[in-house]
Amino acid sequence: MTALTADQMARVKATAPVFAELGPTITKHFYQRMFDAHPELKNVFNQTHQQSGSQPETLARAVYAYAANIDNLGALGGAVTHIAHKHASLNIRPEHYPIVGRHLLGAVVDVLGEAVDQPTLDAWKVAYEQLAQILIGAEAKLYEQASWSGFRPFRVIRKQVESDEITSFYLAPADGAPAGGFEPGQYVSVKRFIDRLGVDQPRQYSLSDAPHGRWLRISVKREAGRGETQPGHVSNLMHDGVDEGAVVHVSAPMGEFTLDRSKATPVVLISGGVGITPMASMLSTLIAEHSARKVAFVHACRNGRVHAFRDWLRGAAATYPDLKRVVFYEQVEADDRAGGDHDFEGRLDLARIADDIVLPDADYYLCGPVAFMREQSAALAARGVDPARVHTEIFGSGMID
Question: Taking every annotated instance into account, which residue ranges of this chain make up the domain FAD-binding FR-type (predicted)?
Answer without folding.
Answer: 149-260
